[in-house]
Amino acid sequence: MKVEIQDWGETPDGQAVQLYTIVNGRGVEARITNYGGIVVSLKVPDGDGRLDDVVLGYDTLPEYVDDLSYFGCIVGRYANRVAGGRFTLNGVGYTLTANERWNHLHGGIRGFSKVVWGAEALEKDDSAGVRLTYLSHDGEEGYPGNLRAEVSYLLTEDDELRIEYTATTDRETVVNLSHHSYFNLAGGGDVLDHKLTLLADRFTPVDGELIPTGETRSVEGTPMDFNTPTGIGERIEVDYEQLELAGGYDQNWVLNRVGPGLSLVARVHHPGTGRAMEMSTTEPGVQFYSGNQLPTHISGKGGRRYGPRHGLCLEAQHFPDSPNRPEFPSTVLREGETYGQTTVYRFYTE
Contact 322/329 with Cβ under 8 angstroms? Predict the structure, then answer.
């Protein structure tokens, strides 16, 4: 396996951007740019061997610069929401950039999704990809500490997209990184006919601002139960407060993990094409987002039109608003410690 690198234009402030293309022995292809760590395309076969792109996105860099939907990117320094854009650490209050009304979402106005990362190709015996690095300076978007982040994307011969994250800091801070691809295993149209399995007995309900209330609630007997394969559209319109608040699914599920390493946590299957995707992660939670707020008639890759519920996100993460919720797993990173996360998306057919 090899990595091909090409120039992909410049940002408005003149920074050069590259596009990395990786192809494995079965023809599965990933294209990744160091602008925002975005997975620009991911082509996998259907049951007849026909390749199609299964992630939403654009054809050009300027479209990603203007994008507000977080197509395919790395989100941080804190993925998901921080209530009121504020938190307290060691008795010191910090104010973050508010970019979703008065709340902080996915790292702020210029989070990790809107910066140019340092990049180098990675080539191994059974995988290849790109290693991305970024120094988030003390005070950036309001966060304390200089945070050195590294994200490696690897496409394997087993048709896996493997994402490995590490980060270190010179001052106590909070960190929660994630990947934000919108998947559509059909290659187009909405995702309501996709069948989802999500191995989680509990989820964290949200309020009207989509901020967790602090409760962890059982999924049993609710439309939030995906422990057995269930069509995404099967219950999305039922009368249930959490679906009404989010306009569909947009909550954090508390995963049924097995041990400290990688655990299989989710599976998506599209019956029409036979494509399937398994997700494994080391994280305690997954945000399942059914693309409810995607604008109508987005002009996407190859002239395709996207709209609400045309893609689904499975974002491995610590829980939203954890800096303000001591009852949630901690997202504090201290000097001398290393943040680490691995998430794997494996593609196959059945």
Answer: yes
CA distances (Å), origin 151, targets 28, 36, 123, 257, 297: 21, 11, 15, 23, 32
Identified catalytic residue from 140, 141, 283, 315: 315
The Cα 278–Cα 260 span in angstroms is 18
Which residue type occupies 225? D
Separation of alpha carbons 196 and 184, rounded Å? 12
* Residue 180 falls in the annotated catalytic set: yes
Q: 247 is written with which tokens? A: 């306009």
pTM exceeds cut of 0.85: yes
Cβ neighbours of residue 277 closer than 8 Å, sequence gap 6 or more: 54, 183, 185, 267, 268, 269, 345, 346, 347, 348
Spatial distance between the Cα atoms of 136 and 175, rounded to a whole number of angstroms: 11
The sign of the torsion formed by the CA atoms of 85, 202, 216, 193 equals: positive
Q: Domain 3-349 carries which CATH code?
A: 2.70.98.10
Looking at 104, 180, 194, 310, which residue is catalytic? Answer: 180
Is position 283 annotated as part of the catalytic site? no
303-306: long-range contacts, CB 8 A cutoff, minimum separation 24: 304/188, 306/56
Burial 269-292 (b: 16+ CB within 10 A, else e): bbbebebbbbbbbbbbbbbbbbbe
Asked if 149 and 134 count as a contact pair (C-beta separation under 8 A), the reply is yes
For residue 103 the two structure tokens come to 């709340």
Bond preceding residue 77 cis, omega within 30 of 0: yes
What span, in angstroms and rounded, lies between the C-alpha atoms of 283 and 285?
A: 6
Question: The dihedral of CA 12, 13, 16, 21: what is its sign?
Answer: negative
Instruction: For 269-301, write each residue's pLDDT tens digit.
Output: 999 999 999 999 999 999 999 999 999 989 999
The 10s digit of each residue's pLDDT in 143-188 is 999 999 999 999 999 999 999 999 999 999 999 999 999 999 999 9
